[in-house]
Amino acid sequence: MKRFELIEHTADTGLAAYGKDLPEAFANAAYGMFAIIAELKEVKESESRRLEINEDNPENLLFEWLNSLLYYFDVEMILFKRFDILEFSENHLAALCYGEKYDPARHRLRTGIKSATFHLLEVDAEKHRVQVIFDV
Fold first, then answer.
1. Could you report the per-residue pLDDT of 11-50, keeping only the tens digit for each?
2. Element (H, E) at 34
């Protein structure tokens, strides 16, 4: 099973992510987002951050999950590549995220992402599939 696939969009970019369950689909959406931002092959797992998010529904949870990760990239320049979902329900997510600070000598950035959006955002709990469009 592929982790994610890119979605063509006129001005922005997006992805659909899959998993054996919904937590894995959320983790793969995060991996796909950072794969859009940078080449992840050279990213080490030398730092970690714990994220805990509570929202009203799964769609808001996905939106806040991805934008919280973007916050760490924007503020601390951390490129994440592994996401261990520790707790998950339709309105709660706790995860440990692994990566390292961006090093221009070793990392190649691809596309800047401003934010995840609600445009075409979907969370399909039965198919373990999520979809999101990013503002680039």
1. 889 999 999 999 999 999 999 999 999 999 999 999 999 9
2. helix 22-37
